Amino acid sequence: MQSDTSGGDQYRMRTLEAWADTFVPGAKRWPDDRAIAGAAAGPGAVDAGAVELLETPATGVSDGLDSLAKALNEHAGAWAASHGVTIDDSVPAFVALSYADRAAVVRMLIAPDHPEKDIWILVALFCFMAFDTAAHMRTVDAIATGHPGLTAMGFAKPDADGLWRFPYFSYGKQLASLHPGTTPAGDPA
Amino acid sequence: MTTAERTDIVVIGSGFGGAIAAYHLAAGGAKVVVLERGPWLSTEEFEHDFILGSSSTRIFEFVAGRGMSVLGGNCVGGGSVVFFATMPRAPSFIFERQGSIGRRLFPAAISRETLNPWYDRVVEALPVHRQEWNEVTYPGGLWAAACRHAGHTANPVPVAIDTAMCTNCNWMMAGCRFDAKRSLLMNYLPAAISHGAQIRPLHEVQQLSRNDDGSYRVHYSVIDDEDYRIQTGSGAIDAKIIVLAAGAGATPVILQRSERTLGAMPFAVGRYFSGNGERLNTAVLNEDKVREVLGLSRPGGQAYRANQIGRGPSVASWDRLDASLPEFSRFSLEQLYFPPGLGTILAQAAGPDGPAWFGPEKKEMLRQWNSWLTIFTMSEDDNEGVFGPPPPSGNAVRISQQMLGQGNLEYKPTKNTLRGWAESDAAVKDILERDGLAKVMPWTNEVVGAYTVHPLASCRIGDDPATSALDDGHELRNHPGIFVTDGSAVPCGLTVNPALTIAALAERAMPGIVAAARERGVQVKYGAPAPGGVASATRAVDRTAA
Q1: What sections of B368-445 are H helices per DSSP?
Q2: Could B358 and A124 be called an inter-chain contact, meaning their C-beta atoms sit closer than 8 Å?
Q3: Deepest of A44, B319, B326, B477, by most Cβ within 10 A of its Cβ?
């Protein structure tokens, strides 16, 4: 059974999922899914593997995820208190927020003058990369298994050897006049 | 006192500035050691893969700063391995730029005319060629057609790519798997090695010191080949001449760190950084309008949907490279491809409260990714970048095992730079939103600040000691025997891709560096032909002798 309770691994997992879902939102996985806010149809960053990517040691952020989740919930709690938003304390504070309120917390944390801006942007970038590049997987495997992000973007399939080639690539005709100052070598004057 | 290995010349960095120096000095007879902080990959190791740890993160670096993020190469071959190989000459008016200092930024000795023979050498060595329209990719063709529709001209750009070998895979930022890109791994570097130059990858230079006999000692760390945060050793090499070409994001940092041992640096070291005035706009095309308005269609019937197909840029509009326009209002607009991740995160969609780089509207925009067209502005910025204190090692605190770091470059765009960006945003919008062709938004600068793939000018040449770190022969002021030949020497933004200009300036500096080496007792001559060619080299030698 799925759970959004605030204990242990679930606390961290659901907090990170809610964070990732703010950047590339997805559909709820089950009716009472709390971590995914359901702000968009189809799979989002969470389904694309955002938490798995954040937990990859090569990112340099994996060791700090417990404290990041804790800090995010503290920021969310403080934000809610200052905006008159009541928090359901059966789930982590950030998870308890609506999508719009989560986005407001994100905008606060990545604002140019926020002292923790650098780290929040970093973990945001990895959430995006999970969807846009599947950086936690071999790209050929991601394509073969229908990775939600690369599939949604229409990323082409590779050739049988795992390399991409596009033999048809050009409209094949002159489509504009050249700048009159162009030199014989094709440079600007 | 510890003893160190000795050689004639140490070259720091193996991009254009380092590879060209290594070749000429080794071919002339000097003992040359090249220290390169990044790994050395062969063609088979260039992968089509986004996974962390593949060549896309091994050889590429993204350093976030304070208002400016710098993207560049981190491997033997430097930027030439990861770049898009677009190599136009800088327009003539660039050499007359004054920026905000009220005097010519380039030294009096350098103009387009005087640099042309050195451009010729590089064009021959790589080689660079003028593309025909049947070599232009779908995104380039679309950009050309949109420019024509809006009353503008557009040009296929000169490239260092063998387009017959190119598969248009658009993985060139991870290195070229098909040997189509004419990177330095295919010309200057193998030629340098054949003349005895030693190239040592994963050797990151930290600082320089001066020996009693006037030679220099180069202090380096050895970097782990998988986790670049780990240093596995250290060492030092003594040399009579230093050629510093670590890139505009690293060269000034090494010199700053060396102040303790070398003494005060010229004021311009680590100042006057230019991001080449770079800016990006992403258009989402209306496929029906592409067909109706521009009359374009592909085999199979699609109008466009070809964002993924190609090889970076292939067409640029140069109408705003007009010498009669005021400085800071001139720019080129070049069609470009960035792979997902770098090329998608900062793009903005129209959200309910304004432009949005994340959220439901951005997700919908990603679903239309194959109908994207990215337009790259290169403009005249105001050289407003300043490097803060150097980090403990390297040019950044490395965050991830590879690729991502945090540096100390501060960049607050001036009104001049912002004006150029605003004018270029308006120009792109005018061209691509005409008759409903597309919706266009600039990338956000709120996340990682401004950004550049062409860092320049952080240790620049010039005639004025107060505003340039190097003399017009690329020698570091007050530190004889240290030469800087990379993008940091270029004095200002060029309004076009700078690689050919960086390389031409390095070629131009070589006779002087050889002469300086000879004065210090190094047995070396100048006059090697371009790797793979002799015609322009012969002309250059004739001119030097004249």
Answers
A1: 415-432
A2: yes
A3: A44
3-state secondary structure B167-180: CCECCHHHCCCCCC
Output the pLDDT for position B545. Answer: 47
pTM assigned to the model: 0.96
* C-alpha radius of gyration, chain A, whole number: 21
Partners of B57 on chain A (C-beta within 8 Å) are 58
- List, in sequence order, every residue forming a beta bridge with B493; answer none if it has no partner: none
Query: For the complex shown, is ipTM > 0.90?
Result: yes
- Taking contacts as CB-CB distances below 8 angstroms, the residues of chain A near B153 are 176-180
Q: Which amino acid is at B23?
A: Y
What is the full DSSP assignment across B49-69?
--STTSHHHHSEEEEEEESEE
Strand spans (E) along B309-468: 315-317, 331-336, 349-351, 354-356, 372-379, 385-387, 397-398, 404-411, 438-442, 450-452
Cα(B202)–Cα(B37) distance, integer angstroms: 4
Q: Least CA distance to B358: which residue of chain A?
A: A23
Query: Domains in chain B: how many in total?
Result: 1
Bridge partners for B317 per DSSP? B333
Q: Tell how strand B450-452 and strand B315-317 pair up.
A: unpaired
**DSSP label at residue B266:** P
Cα(B20)–Cα(B26) distance, integer angstroms: 10
Chain A CB contacts of B447 below 8 Å: 110, 121, 124
Return d(Cα B512, Cα B180) in angstroms, integer.
Answer: 33
Report CB contact under 8 Å: B309, A185. Answer: no
Would you call B152 and A176 a contact, using CB atoms and an 8 Å cutoff? yes
C-beta of residue B454 within 8 angstroms of C-beta of residue B82: no
Alpha carbon of B11: minimum distance to chain A alpha carbons (Å): 31
CATH of the domain at B523: 3.50.50.60
**Whose structure tokens read 């590429």?**
B60
DSSP letters spanning A83-117:
TTPPP-TTS-HHHHS-HHHHHHHHHHHTSTT-TTH
d(CA A24, CA B287): 24
- Is the pLDDT confidence value at B443 over 90? yes
In chain A, residues 56-95 whose CB comes closer than 8 Å to chain B:
56-61
Q: How far apart are CA A112 and CA B50, in angstroms?
A: 29
Six token digits for residue B11: 């070259």
Per the structure block, which two tokens stand in for A137? Answer: 């997987």
Q: Which residues 8-27 of A are in CB contact (within 8 Å) with B?
A: 22-25
B304-333 burial, b at 16+ Cβ within 10 Å, e below that, comes to bbbbbbbbbbbbbbbbbbeeeeebbebbbb
**Whole-angstrom distance, CA of residue B38 vs CA of residue B13:** 9
Return the residue of B nearest to A162 by Cα: B48
Q: Where are the alpha helices (DSSP H) in B131-196?
A: 138-149, 188-194
Give B116-142 pLDDT, tens digit per residue. 999 999 999 999 999 999 999 999 999
* Model pLDDT for residues B381-435, shown as the tens digit of each residue: 999 999 999 999 999 999 999 999 999 999 999 999 999 999 999 999 999 999 9
Is B206 within 8 Å of B194 (Cβ atoms)? no
**Structural domain boundaries, residue B103:** 5-545
A51 touching B, CB under 8 A? no
Helix axes A117-132, A8-23, angle to 10 degrees: 80
Q: How, if at all, do strands B450-452 and B68-73 pair?
A: parallel
Neighbours of B515 (CB within 10 A): 13
Reduce the secondary structure of B473-526 to three states and give it as a string.
Answer: CCEECCCCCEEECCHHHCCCCCCCCCHHHHHHHHHHHHHHHHHHHHHCCCCCCC
